[in-house]
Amino acid sequence: MADSPQSSSTATLSTTGHDRDKDLEKEDNIDPVNRLNVDLEKGKEEQAPPAVLDWDGPDDPENPMNWPQWKRNFHVVPPAVISFAATLGSSIYTPAVPTIMEKWNVSSTVALLPLTVYVLALGFGPILAAPLSETYGRHIVYLSSAPLGALFTMGAGFSQNIQTLCILRFFSGLAFSPALAIGAGSIADVNRPEHRAIPSALYILSPFLGPALGPVIGAFVTVRKGWRWTQWTLIFFAIFAFILTTFARETHKSTILTRRAKRLNLPPPPSPFPNRSSKIRFLVTVTLIRPLNMLITEPIVAFLSLYVSFNFSVLFAFFAAFPYVFKGVYGFTTEQAGLVFLAIGVGSVLAVPTVIACDFWLYQPKVREAKQNGGNGGVPPEYRLYPAMIGSVGLPIGLFWFAWTARSDVSWASPVVAAIPFAWGNLSIFIAAATYLIDAYQALNGASAVAANGLLRYTLGGVFPLFTLQMYRNLGIDWATSLLGFIAVGLMPVPWVLFKFGKQIRKRSAYDMSSL
User: Which of 18-22, 90-94, 449-453, 486-490 has the lowest mean pLDDT?
Assistant: First the structure.
């Protein structure tokens, strides 16, 4: 800037207008009205604490939304890659389960515990990540996440017993998890609301590709290098994510403005929190206590979270079911059984154009209509549910298809292809549910609603694989998968009911919600 730090700061920060130091006024014998001009000339102006930190106008170059398009696009990549590594770490272990059973003489349930504790850690990690990112910024959390995750993963690879493996896998998942919680915030930092649909869909796709590719990679390294390489392979993805993150910059508005104020030697604005621990307590309330309360008291949060969590749990149940089915029925090798999970990846990829098409053809016309009617473009949040309503059909189709074609007299290709509509519906519902909760509950309460969804999703997702094999052995492949299909049918009306009656339900909420 051409202006001095003092003059530039007056354009950037709005002050409270407090009186100048009266002792100095008396000493210099200057009219208080002219005091500011004299101080500027002398370079001695004393800044009163600003009432609020804000950008220096709509074109402030430090505002991430004003960065060049390529730069804004790049800042979607680091959290997406870390999120991919996080979920890859959950599933890459599963092909090693038979080896672990044999090596350490444990049951299949115990051998699956390292998967369960890792997934549980992914659910509880955001409780730490959200307060840290709001206090210290998003970039430092990303920079710490990948190296810490890599260190715990390295230790897991050297484990000599199942207990050590479980403990280190838990902390590995905890370290990798922050990107799953704050990645959406990074996208919101660099993209205006009308431009978030595509980057959000691509970012959300990344953690769903992890479970699809993890068993493929894990199967090959287990067979050719040993089970320990299922852990060490993950380190390479962590290193790649860390390298990308070093080229990124901070995007969190409050952190950027606070650092700028310090750079200009300006006092910070008065904080609503008396100390940092009070702020952290408040953020823990938002990410843990309030989400648990919303799960119990808010019908929208409860039913959407239950629906999404069940779908997610079935996906994780497939980590145990697919090897059981394709090895037992079709005689697949470990590597061949791992390749089956590519169908999950195909279905997940197909969900992205579905969400984008719904946004372009169904949601954006409502935005334009609202603007033409003199509004600001606000649309009732229920219009975010179109992908979920469409995708709700895919889950029961995929599950019943898999249930009754996974037998020796039907080609293996049929149950493999059946996984595609399931994965397509799963991700379509997840993206729609997340955007709906944010729009319905607004920023702060929306973060709590999404956190509630995450807690239940990863808790159920971690538990389901523990009883999947027992269920398939006792009920058979057909009825075990059909049971999951019947539950999917029972939950199928959730997005349709919310689309029809969501506005009436929102009016009865105890939380501040969208009035549209």
Answer: 18-22
